[in-house]
Amino acid sequence: MKKAFTLTEIIVTLSIIGVIAALTIPAVMKGYREKMYSAQLKKTVSQIENAAKTVMSDEHAQSFFETTAGVPTTDDTDETVGAPYFLNNYLKNARTGCFNKNDSNANNCILKTYKTAGGTDVEMYSSYCVLTVNGSAVCMWNDTEKENNNIIIDINGIDAPNIIGVDVFSAKISADGTVISDGVDETKCGVKSSDWGHIVDYAQGCLQKVINNNWKITE
Question: Which of 1, 20, 41, 53 is most buried, by the most CB atoms less than 10 A from its CB?
């Protein structure tokens, strides 16, 4: 006599495998995304920091704010100084000047509106943006106040999930060229910190939260 599985046994076995897969695959995919986001964020921060220190070296400056890149300006049309000069010349980009908040038909590399983990809509502010060759959108705004700048990093451009603290973060370049979190209190990540209401107000401490978590992003 030949022994074999019955059709019922095969169906039951496949059903069990299907249930196990349904329970485990989402967790595996979530873990994969988190690792991918974490690696991309750390890589992009490192690239910006290397760029800041390179421009300081090129111009023999003791402070980033003494360089052409650190000039306080909010004029995105002048690519000879400030954020446009820095992002265009010291990062490897696929696209430059790729954000126009006022043009509904603009082919932007970063969104006009993001969400917090709680679902609150948050506006992006007007700034100069580039899309790097590794797929991260980097936007920078040099305040007219000396030694003050804001950097927004969307590690996967306009692709989902577009959530503050998951794939979009706020940072600053300090005087010595290091990239630091915009705000060090991680409990403020996703919480409105001023009446301004732009993305930088909700992203306070988000990068610091990732750094404190050993560069691990958790959705």
Answer: 41
